Recover the amino acids of this structure.
């Protein structure tokens, strides 16, 4: 008999760390982790099984399918934006083919269980591609369906996977006689840049915010690769994890769409430096701009419109810029580097 479980792919990543801790307190069935790397030993007590494997390996997915009855899949595994730009074909394989593999697993599970399987997909504001800086600064809070012309491989991958997921939720094999009996309950959030006190990002274009504060806490000089007036939306990791819990718990009939924007605050890189200096006055933060990464940030919105998430599932970020630093990041980061 198959064992009831929840599956998290990319479990060893930044979001995986926070999500596993949250599910440890809330999940009613065991959590199974899949990652191409060994999962952090600190997370293992919270896991029923820790599978080291590739989402592109069908044998790994078949084994999961035969041993578990999955009520939900949190598909986090991906190659992030900067890495994807260096290896676009591999990014497409991991980000798109990998996501299709997991959606197919969800279909197989739904078919055998006779009920939809919930599927969480973390998208990104990299799906946006605003043509120039002037338009970006004039655009205001950008809605879900505007400016969908991504300028990175990662953004293209995310946008297509949003569509693939929506297709699997609404139309999958719509011509089949039993259509509708094996649909995937796909739910996706477009996250802004996420800042965590406990993990450091690697390979994303928004990494400068986390790198700045972690360097300051360790007394290490840091050169930001984005211009002082470079601006994009951010959010703390605890808010992001809470959002995942809320969208997954929302009754499906409340969801007017399958993909939602959310955000919390949009500081410029100079404002980030300033707030870090108020907490770490000796921090040495300079600017050594990488024009190519700057161009990517310039194609992303200053702010996104999150009214649909507010209306449909009651979303409200807990932290603004001030409280993100004074209430969460600074105390937790000081604790992390105390020794
Ligand atoms: N962190 C952010 O700011 C942010 C913002 C928007 C969206 N997202 C999305 O959230 C998800 C998780 O992000 P994160 O910050 O935790 O990323 P991360 O890079 O920290 O973690 C990704 C994990 O996926 C694993 N992985 C990569 N390729 C794999 C493969 N082929 N098979 C199995 N595992 C594989 C990696 O080993 C890693 O542990 C990603 O889909 C990312 O695109 C993140």
């Amino acid at each position: 008999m198959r064992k009831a479980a929840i599956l998290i792919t990319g479990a060893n990543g930044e979001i995986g760390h926070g999500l596993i801790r949250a599910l440890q307190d809330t999940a009613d069935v065991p959590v199974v982790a899949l990652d191409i790397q060994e999962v952090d030993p600190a997370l293992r007590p919270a896991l029923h099984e820790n599978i080291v494997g590739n989402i592109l390996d069908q044998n790994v997915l078949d084994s999961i399918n035969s041993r578990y009855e999955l009520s939900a899949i949190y598909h986090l595994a991906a190659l992030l934006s900067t890495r994807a730009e260096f290896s676009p074909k591999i990014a497409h394989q991991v980000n798109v083919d990998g996501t299709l593999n997991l959606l197919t697993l969800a279909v197989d599970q739904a078919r055998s269980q006779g009920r939809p399987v919930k599927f969480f997909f973390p998208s990104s504001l990299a799906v946006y591609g605003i043509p120039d800086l002037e338009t970006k600064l004039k655009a205001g809070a950008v809605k879900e369906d505007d400016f969908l012309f991504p300028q990175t491989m990662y953004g293209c991958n995310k946008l297509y996977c949003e569509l693939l997921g929506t297709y699997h939720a609404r139309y999958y094999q719509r011509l089949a006689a039993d259509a509708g009996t094996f649909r995937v309950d796909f739910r996706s959030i477009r996250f802004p840049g996420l800042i965590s006190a406990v993990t450091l990002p690697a390979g994303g274009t928004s990494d400068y915010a986390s790198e700045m504060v972690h360097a300051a806490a360790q007394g290490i000089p840091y050169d930001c690769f984005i211009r002082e007036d470079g601006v994009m939306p951010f959010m703390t990791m605890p808010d992001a994890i809470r959002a995942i819990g809320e969208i997954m718990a929302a009754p499906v009939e409340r969801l007017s769409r399958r993909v939602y924007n959310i955000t919390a605050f949009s500081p410029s890189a100079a404002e980030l430096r300033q707030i870090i200096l108020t907490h770490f006055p000796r921090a040495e933060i300079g600017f050594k701009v990488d024009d190519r990464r700057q161009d990517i940030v310039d194609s992303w919105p200053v702010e996104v419109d999150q009214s649909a998430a507010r209306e449909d599932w009651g979303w409200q970020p807990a932290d603004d810029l001030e409280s993100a630093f004074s209430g969460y990041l600074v105390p937790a980061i000081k604790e992390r580097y105390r020794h």
